[in-house]
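Journal club prep, notes for RB
We'll compare a predicted complex against what the paper describes. Inputs for the pyridoxal-5'-phosphate case:
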Amino acid sequence: MPLDIDRIRAQFPALRRRVNDHPLVYLDSAATSQKPSVVLDAERTFLEQHNAAVHRGAHTLAAEATELFESSRERLARFLGAAPEEIVWTAGATAALNLLAYSFSNASRGRGGEPAERFRLGPGDELVVTELEHHANLIPWQELAARTGATLRPIGVDDAGRLRMDEAVEVIGEHTRVLAFAHVSNVLGAINPVAELVALARRFGALVVLDACQSAPHLSLDLKALDVDFAVLSGHKMLGPLGIGVLYGRRELLDAMPPFLTGGSMITSVMMERAEYLPSPARFEAGTQPVSQAIGLAAAVDFLDELGMEQVHERDAELGQALVTGLTAIPGIRVLGPAPGEPRVGLAGFIVDGVHSHDVGQFLDELGIAVRVGHHCAEPLHRRLGLAASTRASTSVYTTDAEVAAFLDGVGRIRAFFRA
Amino acid sequence: MSRQDLRNLYQDVLVDHSHERHGYGLLEDPTAESHGINRSCGDEITLHIRAGDGVIESVGWTGHGCAISQASASMLSDIVAGLTRDECTRCLDRFRSMLQSRGKDDGDEELLGDAVALSGVSLYPPRINCAMLAWTALEDGLTRIDA
Ligand SMILES: Cc1ncc(COP(=O)(O)O)c(C=O)c1O
């Protein structure tokens, strides 16, 4: 059954906003999605009824908070096809990627002992990323390389922004220790070939890190089936609260990794000069945790599962095609990434000939239409495509056909306004 | 002034300048060079000043950016040629206070010429940096000339 968009929209209070005397047309869900009432209510109920620190204290509220926190973890695990112990709460995808990079870096200094040996990096080792990565999946690896003496190697993209698989075959080799790449590009909307990349990495025993930020809101994810070692995502991009994300890791890997952030709640025993650490996920969750946010994210995946991720994906693909087909038909507009008819999520980066993206965004904002402008934290990709900036429209489950039409109509009038 | 119409921001004179880009191109023998970058959008400018006998002879610039930053650089290069450093600084101060006025200051046309067409930017705070890009580069360059 197709999604009932009107019914869905009614559950997102922010969509009732008006902007510049127009109904808000929110096409910036890839930056952060709006949140349904069930998510906001879940957070508020927790804060009003059960607020307490988790895994500490014996009182009733603490027990309730712990129960809700852990059942939220189970909920996320189910959503992602993982086990609860494989789900580490983080502040977001950026925090999750830094956690990994710093854990590997600590292992490289000998922390974690023998079990952590497989994370040790040094001169001669290679970290492989792609040219289309978000800075969050690039800079932590640059820094890790700089700290350990390992080399960072990119897999390039072609003029259309497609990942060069011929280059991937060349770059991924016996020295590759980590392969980190985005499932879906946050600029191009293209879905990268996970199975092929995983197969290449497996041949050389490299660890695979999947940035699932832009796939988790749109596709049904089964991390076990994708067979990646690690995956990261941000709750706020998938109808959940700000300030919460997930690091998924295969259990035996997480249990062997040395911690990154250290402090309370992640130890078994502490002497004055040293400490013993809990197994994952607690080992990676030092300090008082973002409980209401975790509960909100669990409510968000409940919401998505009630819609059905297959239906969500179907609708999303339809919106992606509507964007690319509509934009391509407008004179002077160049769409980045997959051509009409090729797979893409509900996201389209584009260039308006002769008009800077900042001005494009301003023109659309005047019509109440919210899009993203700039380099979208993917500067190397823009440089590769010969661009300083682009404009991006991205959809979610609440996006209507009428909104896409209003957006396309607006884009069609930009060049005349600026006399481009 | 109000935000009623996007033309209050993108006035015709502004759009003209964004296409014409007066002063575009670097000078052969600059007295000072400066560089500006707008962190929020990556817009960049390189600005050359040639000065002699206490007077700014000319300004040349290259870079890329939105219509507002390009128009602003174009207007700047029209205005400051022939001014002393002190006069330049006065223009700069007047220009900045116009942009920060939130619609209350239409600018001094005698001093700022076409740049008063940027007064509408004051109602769009995120865009003030775009309009200021060339001017902060000028301010920086002025510290390195002995005019
Ligand atoms: C592909 C991708 N990776 C990583 C991130 C970083 O996510 P966050 O800023 O929520 O940590 C984003 C979002 O900005 C993204 O689109």
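Talking point for the session: The longest helix of chain A spans residues 60-80.
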